[in-house]
Amino acid sequence: MPDEEIVRRIAGSTGLTASEAARVIEDVIAWYGESVEEYVRRRHGHLQTHGTRNAEAFAIIADELSSRPVKAPPLTERQLRRIVYG
To answer: How many domains does the chain have?
Structure first.
């Protein structure tokens, strides 16, 4: 269960019940809880499925990483490539 204070705040600002707010918070925490490596691999696979070439995919991923709430350190294309391909 997430912190009660944030549950109250989200429930109060959205009109959700406390249990609904807690579930939303848990979903958001889980979404952003994956490691940088997990995120890079998942996004790369998703982008490749949609026909994005590697150079463009790595640029997109690097940009996305810089705007996540818990920022990853800046990663070069080479570092991203190593995460994906080992």
So the answer is: 2
84-35-10 Cα angle (round to 5): 140
Q: Using a pLDDT cut of 90, give the percent of the chain over it.
A: 74
> Cα separation of 41 and 75, whole Å?
14
Per residue in 31-69, pLDDT (tens digit) is 888 889 999 999 999 999 999 999 999 999 999 998 888
| Domain residue limits at 44 | 36-85
Sign of the CA dihedral 9, 15, 18, 23? negative
CA distance 79 to 44: 13
Q: Which two tokens stand for residue 17?
A: 């019940």
| pTM tops 0.85, yes or no | no
Give the span between the Cα atoms of 65 and 23, in whole angstroms: 25
Beta-carbon contacts of residue 85 (< 8 Å; ≥ 6 apart): none
